[in-house]
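Exam revision sheet. Question 4 asks you to relate a sequence to its structure. Input first:
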Amino acid sequence: MSSFFRFIAKHTAYLYFLLYCSISIMLMQLQRKETLDALRERGLSMNAAISRQFTGATAIFTLERDNRQLFLQNARLFGQLLRQQAALRDASELNAIQATAPQWVGNYKVARVVDRRFSATDNMLIIDAGSRRGIAKDMAVLTPDGLVGRVIEVSPNYAKVLPVINQNFMVSVVSDSTRTSGLLAWRNGNERLAKMEHVPVSSKLLNGERLTTSGYSTFATRGIPVGQIIRISKDKLFYDIDVRLSVDFSSLSWVLVSLAKPSMEKIELMDSPDVPAKEE
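Answer key, structure tokens:
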């Protein structure tokens, strides 16, 4: 090992000379255009590779942020589309029910069904028209197809409707050809079927007859379609009659509220005692 260092010390001048020559040759090579272009090209390639790696790393975070923004924007656009579609559908249904409103409806207000209680016995409807639009208790609610029910409670902007498909609902009806009267009631839980009650077996009644409200009703005007008789059978004293209702409650969305008010004079007379007071 010592001999190696002695050799280095002895020939230091030659070693410096070789180092200087190497540096001179390298500098001369760097002065050549081809070499400089090659170094520049290699440097650019390395810079591009580093930039791609850096861009790829940052793009992950940028893409996640952009995707979040696009999701929120799409959600807003989808919400707007749903609202516009609902508005167009409501306008179309409103125009349709107004265009098809029959003459027997008379003066009316159009309302939309905004809530409903489903039950096998006591269905209930809420409509978006109340006292501010002239709706009052005991007004008839209907569609161009027929009777829907009766207003039983009113707030400033809404009204509660007792529909035909409620066991507490009854209305006086009459058949269209034999003119037989009875009471329509809903008993069996089927939204399209009701009963015509209190029709004696001595009455004339035909299968297939259509039923409308009679003049005996305390809230509905005469002549509103109610349904059609689809089955008649005799019991001991009265007929057992099935009626297919005119209104399809499963697809009910818009209704007409008749502004005709019930005759309070007739109601008071019906509610008065049947036996007159004894004179002293």
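Marking note for examiners. The chain has four helices and twelve strands.
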